[in-house]
Amino acid sequence: MPVTIRRATSHDLDLVAPLFDAYRRFYAQPGDLPRARAFLQERLQHGESAILLAQLDDRTVGFTQLYPMFSSVRTARLWILNDLYVDEHARRHGVARALLDAAAEFAREQGAAGLMLETSRDNAPARALYRAAGWNEDESQWYSLALATHGAGPQ
Predict the structure, then answer these.
(1) Domains in the chain: ranges and CATH
(2) Which residues form the N-acetyltransferase domain (predicted)?
(3) Distance (Å, rounded) from C-alpha 109 to C-alpha 135?
(4) What is the pTM of this model?
(5) Which pLDDT tens digit goes with each residue over 52-79?
(6) 20 to 30 Å CA-CA from 5: which of 17, 38, 87, 93?
(7) Radius of gyration (Cα) for the chain, nearest Å?
């Protein structure tokens, strides 16, 4: 059965929240399904992200979450593909590639100039997938500044 992709709505929170929680656990965060659900609900409620859901055999098996941003230099909208996750039992069925292709189509439909994502250098499977899907590794240098963690008060 082919992979189908559709945009999530607030009615899909109970489908995507467990996948989002598993995604966060993959990145060494503690499991917290209520927190995952509340975070996604707020993003959707305020139109702060777009979530695409992947379904295989009538099961929701993956998602990607995109955040809007703008380029002043290009005077254009861009989207950051911030999250991509496929349930371990659905891997090797083309789900991740279908999500990447759907994200690109979504961004085109929104009139965006491009998509961006970041992954760790040691994530070889993801890097191979992105290259195979036509993404380019940029030579630009990203910097980051860690601020107080969410929920932490003044120190």
Answers:
(1) 4-132 (3.40.630.30)
(2) 3-150
(3) 18
(4) 0.88
(5) 999 998 899 999 999 999 999 999 999 9
(6) 38
(7) 16
